[in-house]
Every structure is written in structure tokens, then in C-alpha cells.
Amino acid sequence: MEQDAVSTLIEWIKTSSQIVFLTGSELCYEAGIPDVADKNFNPDINQYKNIPEVRKKYWNKIKEYYPKISSAKPSPTHEAIYEMELLYNVDCVLTQCADGLHLKTGSEKVIEIYASINWVTCPNCGKDYKIEEVISELEKGAEVPSCKECGNDRIKPPISFPGQALPHWEIRESWMRLQNCDLLIIVGANLEDEPVASFPFQVMNNENKVAIIGEAATLADDYVSAVINGKPSHVLPYILKQLKETTIVS
What we know:
The protein is 42% helix and 14% strand. By secondary structure, the protein is α/β, with parallel strands linked by helices.
């Protein structure tokens, strides 16, 4: 862990007026669950729509993994970020994760960029379902769930599959929050694909600071204000501890 970068980030957190976190798949893996928003986890949207076997394979996978997701607990990273929300000027948490673990900490400042695995929508009539209802249908023997209102069997979580546009409101809101922040802290996120790949550059173009924390290298590492290589579940609790020890409470 780069102590100079850590010390610098601690000072930035203390003095920033509007902090935004961007989190991603490394937080899923630390919690012991797959990244269900990852393009490699999900089928191409056109194949999903047109090939029943693709839908069957997808829902078999969800049936297998969802119990692990629903029972997963927030990691030390999730908890540290939430505590920073309570103590410092954190405007919001943007997350690429679709598992709801940030929300399980109690946070009300979360924007799920790629939407959520925890509900399912019918593309035909717009009916929404809690995913537990859909899992129950699968457990009763259905190979592919269908909408109870219109019978459509192409219902799916609102997560953007490959070939499908990202959720409009979430992306627009993310851009607006980044436009106004003076410190972006990226934690375990994937910066390979647009529009998220441009997020750090949007902040830097406004002459504000960007710090990246994570085990995997990113395409933005050579351009941002600070990079801290390490497991988020080690780095974030350490930063929080140092913040508490060095913050003077008046």
C-alpha cells in the first residue's frame, strides 16, 4: 500500500466539499458473489430475446447464484464507504455492481449504474416483480419464467445485457454528480467500457481530483491524481481508521 498516496487521499477526503465514490466488481468478489452486471455473465440481448435455450440457461444460472447473492453481507469495503458517508462530505456512491450490497449497509446515496438483480421487468407490459417471485416460479418447475399479466417469457432484470443500452436515468444522474464533485474515489471498478471509462476524465477535466483504489490496473491509472494498489477490503478500512484518528472533533 502506497503510504504517500494514502496520506494524500486522507487529506483530500478531509478537505473536499463533494466526494463521489465509484465502485465495481472487486467488491462483489470480496463479498463472495459473482458480478451479475458483467457482460461475460449475461447473454447477448438479441439471443436472449430470440432463443428460448439462451433464456433457460440464463435463468438456471440465476437460480443457482441468487441465494448466495441474497444472503451475502456487505464487505468491509461497503461498510467503510458507508461510514465515510456519515462522517464526511460524500455526495453519492455510483456502483457498477447490481447486487444491492451498498443498500444493505443502510446507505440512501446509491446510484446503481447498471440497475439491479433484485427485481425483474416485463418488456412487453412493463410489469415489475421482485426476483424472489421469479425464483419461486423456477423452483416450482418452470424452466423460463413468464409475466403473470401478459404471458411474455422474455422478462428479465433491468441489468443491461450486451447489445442493450444502459439505463438512461442512472447514466445521466452519474454525469451530473461527477460534474459537481471535487473528489472522485474509484474503488475496484472496471474502467474499460464507456461511458464509465470517461468518468475519471470528466472530473479531471474540471481540474478536480481522482483517486483509484484496487487490485487490478485500469486504463486511467497513468492519468489520475493518485493510485493505491491493494485489496479494497484492506485499504478502505485502513483509510477510515486513519481518518478517525487524525480528525479533530470540535
